Amino acid sequence: GESVGLHLPTLSVQEGDNSIINCAYSNSASDYFIWYKQESGKGPQFIIDIRSNMDKRQGQRVTVLLNKTVKHLSLQIAATQPGDSAVYFCAENMVTTDSWGKLQFGAGTQVVVTP
Amino acid sequence: NAGVTQTPKFRVLKTGQSMTLLCAQDMNHEYMYWYRQDPGMGLRLIHYSVGEGTTAKGEVPDGYNVSRLKKQNFLLGLESAAPSQTSVYFCASSNRGTNTEAFFGQGTRLTVV
Questions:
Q1: What is the mean pLDDT of residues B86-113?
Q2: Which residue among B35, B42, B99 places its CB closest to the CB of A107?
Q3: Which range, of A3-12, A102-111, B9-18, averages the lowest pLDDT?
Q4: Which of A103, A105, A109, A110 to mutate: most B Cβ within 10 Å?
Q5: Do A89 and B40 touch (CB under 8 A)?
Q6: Which residues of chain A are at the B interface, by a Cβ-Cβ cutoff of 8 Å?
Q7: Which pLDDT score is estimated for A26?
Q8: N or C: which end of chain A has fewer CB within 10 A?
Q9: Beta strands of B19-97 (E only): which ranges?
Q10: Is B97 an interface residue toward A (CB < 8 Å)?
Q11: Which chain A residues contact residue B35 at CB under 8 A?
Q12: Separation of alpha carbons A112 and A82, rounded Å
């Protein structure tokens, strides 16, 4: 989910359930797509990335899915825990003319884990 | 291992004052960045550097200047602060070739009154 106005979309998840966070991206030329997690009062932290020539990548308790046809990215978190409560950002890595990839962040989704 | 360290953590400025935000990384990363984060707008790139002595403009560079005199340090300057620059500022660094994984500092909360 991308935000509208000043309020982040919020995903409320019960502890132990799976979470799915969605993101629409804009640039079909992006080389990588990335997920970051930001806990309250902290800087963003890298979770996982996926190259544009892949459609699925798995990490520890997380899976990222990429659907290039509809420019959609999702992050699945298995067995959501209280420590997963945070704002999740998707980002695109757009390769520039000097071959450096600039990270373009989305507005974020707030995940709230309830007991 | 400290990672990315930003100073100060909080600051209140009056309109028209100047200040410099300091960023230091101890991971020998080539790339460094300054972002600002405003409610509902994610992170927007202000300036970045792909190596010592080089800097470039990002998405929202106006009103800011930067310098990278040493590889481990990236300074962000506000010459004449404006209320629109009230924000949380994040510094980040990454390795050449793996720059999808950026390491962020804890942020500097700046208020301009």
A1: 90
A2: B42
A3: A3-12
A4: A103
A5: no
A6: 3-8, 32, 34, 41-46, 49, 89, 91, 93, 98, 100-108
A7: 81
A8: C
A9: 19-25, 31-37, 43-51, 54-57, 64-67, 73-78, 87-94
A10: no
A11: 105
A12: 8
Interface residue B60 vs chain A (CB under 8 A): no
pLDDT digits (tens, 9 = 90+) for B29-47: 999 999 999 987 789 999 9
Beta bridge partners of B78: B19, B64
pLDDT tens column, B87-97: 999 999 998 76
B50 CB near a chain A CB, below 8 Å?
Answer: yes
Tokens 């200047």, located at residue: B65
Strand, coil or helix: what is A84? helix
Chain A residues closer than 8 Å to B40 by CB:
3-8, 107
Residue with tokens 């990215």: A73
Strand partners, A7: A4
Q: Please state the rounded mean pLDDT for residues B67-80.
A: 97
The C-alpha atoms of residue A35 and residue A42 are separated, in whole angstroms, by 16
- What pLDDT sits at residue A4? 32
Query: Which chain B residue has the Cα nearest residue A99?
Result: B97
